[in-house]
Amino acid sequence: MIFDRLLVNVNAATMVPKxxxxxxxxxxxxxxxxxxxxxxxxxxxxxxxxxxxxxxxxCAAKWVTPALADCHTHLIYAGDRAAEFEKRLQxxxxxxxxxxxGGILSTVRAxxxxxxxxxxxxxxxxxxxxxxxxxxxxxxKSGYGLDLATERKxxxxxxxxxDDMGLRIQRTFLGAHALPxxxxxxxxxxxxxxxxxxxxxxxxxKLIDAVxxxxxNIGFSRAQMEKVFKKAKExxxxxxxxxxxxxxxxxxxxxxxxxxxxxxxxxxxxxxxVKAMAAAGTVAxxxxxxxxxxxxxxxxxxxxxxxxxxxxxxxxxxNPGTSPTLSLLLMLNMSCTFFRLTxxxxxxxxxxxxxxxxxxxxxxxxxxxxxxxxxVLWDIDHPRDLCYYFPRPPV
Length: 395
Prior knowledge:
The protein is α/β, with parallel strands linked by helices. The protein contains 15 helices and 15 strands.
C-alpha cells in the first residue's frame, strides 16, 4: 500500500461509534492518505507490512478528528444589528422588533445595497475565522435578499467561496425567510413568486443545493412551506426547515413528510414531530447560540430525540441578529451546558451528524477509508476537552 502521507504516533477519534466506544477512539493510530482521501485508518500495528509513504508525520501523541462541519449558517450578509441587541436588553422582544420592520428586514436592506464583491469579502473574513477552529465543511444560506437579484448575488458568492477555497459548501436557498416590504400583507403572492420565479431560475443557473424556509408565526405557515417543498421536490432538490423555534407550527413533521435533511432549532417540537423525524431519518439541528442570544427558556426535547433515535447535530446559526458567533467550539460547550448533551453527543453533532444534516455523510464527517482526508490535529489531552474549555483554537 502506497500513501502520499502517513500520520503516526497519533490518537484518533474516528466518529465511527463502536460498542462501548461512541467516538470510535483508536489510540496509537495511523492514518494513511492517498489522493486526498483516507486510504487507511486503524491501529499502527495493523499497517500493511509492505506500506510506503511519501511523507510521514509524527503527531507527538496528539489527537485527530475529522474536520468539523457547520451545518447551519447565514454567513453571507451586510450590516449588523447591534442596535437591536441593545433594544432587546431594554425589554423589546425579537418578535416586536421584527414586526416593526427590524430583524431580518434590516439585514435585507443592507444586503440588497451591498455589491457582490463586498459580500464576498465580508463572508470570507467570517469563514477564515471559522477555519481556525477546524471547520472545513459549511452550509451557507441565502435569504437576506428576498428578491431574485439579491438571492442570486448571495448564492453566487457562496459558489465563488466554494470554488476559491476548495471547501465543501452547501448552497441553501432560503427565499422563504421573511416577507419583503414590497410584498407586505401579501404572503400568498410572495410564496407564488418564490415557487414560480425564484426557485426555477436559480435552479436553472445551478446555484442551489438545498431549499430551506422559516415556518413560524412571524414567518410562513405550514401550508405555505408545503407549497415551497413541493416545488423543491419537483426540481429534485433536498429540503430542510427552520422549525418550532418560537412555537409549534408542525413544521418538523412537514419537513419529515418530504424526507428533509434536517429540522433546525426545534425548541417547541413535540413527540409526534420527533417520531416523524425518526421515521424519515431527518436530523435534529440544535442551535444553542440563538437560544442563548435570545434568552430563550424552552430547550429542545433532547430526551425525546434520544428515545426515538433521532441524530442530533450542532451548528453556529451564525447570523447578524440572533446568533452572531463564529465559534463552533463555543457551541459545543453551550450544547452541553444548556441542552445537557454529553461531550460524545456534541462531538458527533459537529462531525458525523452534521455531515448527515448536509447529505454529505458519504463524503465526510468520519475518519474512514474512502472519505475525504480532512483531518484536524488538536493539542488536547482527550476529545472531550473540545467541549470542556470555553473556545480556544487548539488546532
